[in-house]
Backbone:
């Protein structure tokens, strides 16, 4: 069994209270680790270390190329240990091992991308009159609190840490208390790469104490949060007290619009992947499937047939296609939503149960679940379930499809499956979402912005946009020849 400690100011330490939290394998309910359970005082210590280190300039004043070298070291060490880290991610999170391996490689790519991006030519210069030039430069923000979720523990950490680090900031990372294992391994890599003490700090514990201190502290200049919309709204309220910079990637209830002209088998195959990948625990999951009337019945019949054949199992089993939910508490939340759907009058067409036989009795497995005959006002249509639960809506024409697609408070992602590309582009441009696809889904590139409209968040991650989120932009005006202004008389 693993013992997981926090990393503050270059030292591995337990919590001040000495308390520990049990970390569970969601596939079988077994104890895999004891993690130091931090509290507000631990967070204060981490923030103080990050503040002192930032103010010293030991990191923020390093040349861009030097900081980039550290990121390349981190990427190389991640890659060297990719197999072991992926196994740990599967053990802690429950996801398929293939998905975990992909996450590790994407984290490697993220560190390398930002190491390369920061060394590229940047900034602007403007001529102002005959002897004055305006220069625009990028500077670090300062101390950053990074709070990341449990569905992609390593990858979401990398998405925040890489741009924060290379921009010259110091930071405190709080992983989910459910999935801290790969965060600890990542900080072991930081230590091995020689990242100076106090630059990267790791605290573990609940959001109500550790997270709150990371958001409220006047020593913190920026909060980057990935998680639920309600928590994000609370962060906004607190950050407003001292006008702290924030970036938020929040919930989603993303539509997948399928028109009648599409290849049915391809669209069905994609619809399954769009919601049941990672057991539906994906912020951009296409949890609402909108099907054109003329193909609705045939499509649903084939979809249910395929969904019932999905192979459920442990993530380290090569034959498995879908794993458990991340925790018992989250499983119970998903099961409650399934009951809500039935009570609201939707038709439970497939699944809906916890799997408790064939060796799954101690794990947190839920069947792939499909609801039909839904109404737009139903909670299962409007609220993020974050599990393997798909709600189906039907539409008669393009206009109704767009109306239904936009009929939620969320705006993270969406897709259109349609052979008529002109029509597909016309519709996708009207979807109120920050990440969209045509005839594909879950395709992402580090170079492109990631974030949502409406209550799905503020700001954009990845690409140069992600670097902007962790940078201050400064204007410098230089006169090559000082002279009197002459505004006032002698």
Residues:
């Amino acid at each position: 069994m693993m013992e997981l400690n926090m990393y503050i100011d270059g030292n591995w330490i337990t919590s001040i209270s000495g308390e520990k939290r049990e970390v569970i394998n969601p596939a079988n309910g077994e104890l895999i680790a004891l993690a130091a359970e931090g509290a507000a005082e631990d967070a204060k210590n981490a923030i103080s270390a990050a503040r002192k280190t930032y103010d010293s300039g030991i990191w923020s004043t390093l040349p861009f190329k030097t900081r980039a070298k550290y990121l390349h070291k981190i990427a190389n060490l991640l890659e060297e240990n990719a197999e072991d880290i992926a196994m740990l991610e599967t053990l802690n999170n429950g996801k398929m091992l293939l998905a975990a391996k992909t996450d590790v490689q994407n984290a490697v790519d993220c560190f390398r991308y930002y190491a390369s991006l920061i060394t590229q030519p940047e900034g602007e210069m403007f001529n102002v009159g005959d002897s004055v030039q305006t220069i625009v430069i990028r500077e670090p923000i300062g101390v950053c609190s990074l709070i990341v979720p449990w569905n992609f523990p390593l990858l979401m950490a990398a998405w925040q840490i890489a741009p924060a680090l290379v921009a010259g900031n110091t930071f405190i990372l709080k992983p989910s208390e459910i999935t801290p294992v790969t965060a600890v391994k990542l900080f072991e890599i930081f230590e091995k790469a020689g990242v100076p003490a106090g630059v990267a700090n790791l605290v573990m514990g609940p959001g109500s104490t550790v997270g709150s201190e990371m958001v409220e502290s006047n020593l913190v200049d920026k909060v980057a949060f990935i998680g639920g919309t309600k928590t994000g709204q609370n962060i906004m309220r607190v950050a407003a007290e001292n006008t702290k910079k924030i970036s938020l990637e929040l919930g989603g209830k993303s539509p997948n619009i399928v028109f009648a002209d599409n290849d049915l088998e391809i669209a069905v195959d994609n619809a399954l992947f769009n919601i049941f990948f990672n057991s539906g625990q994906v912020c951009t999951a296409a949890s609402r499937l909108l099907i054109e009337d003329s193909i609705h019945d045939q499509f649903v019949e084939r979809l249910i047939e395929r969904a019932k054949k999905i192979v459920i199992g442990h993530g380290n089993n090569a034959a498995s296609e879908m794993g458990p939910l991340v925790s018992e508490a989250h499983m119970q939340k998903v099961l409650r939503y399934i009951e809500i759907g039935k009570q609201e009058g939707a038709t439970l067409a497939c699944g809906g149960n916890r799997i408790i036989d064939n060796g799954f009795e101690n794990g947190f497995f839920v069947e792939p679940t499909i609801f039909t005959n839904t109404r737009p006002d139903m909670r299962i249509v409007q609220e993020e379930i974050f599990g393997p639960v798909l709600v189906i809506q039907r539409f008669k024409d393009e206009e109704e499809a767009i109306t239904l697609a936009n009929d939620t408070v969320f705006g993270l992602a969406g897709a259109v499956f349609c052979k008529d590309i002109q029509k597909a582009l016309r519709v996708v441009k009207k979807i109120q979402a920050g990440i969209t696809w045509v005839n594909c889904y879950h395709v992402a590139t580090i170079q492109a912005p990631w974030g949502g409209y409406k209550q799905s968040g503020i700001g954009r991650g990845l690409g140069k946009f992600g670097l902007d989120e962790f940078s201050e932009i400064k204007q410098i005006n230089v006169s090559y020849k000082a002279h009197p202004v002459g505004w006032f008389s002698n």
In short: DSSP finds 15 helices and 23 strands in the chain. The two ends are 81 Å apart (CA to CA).
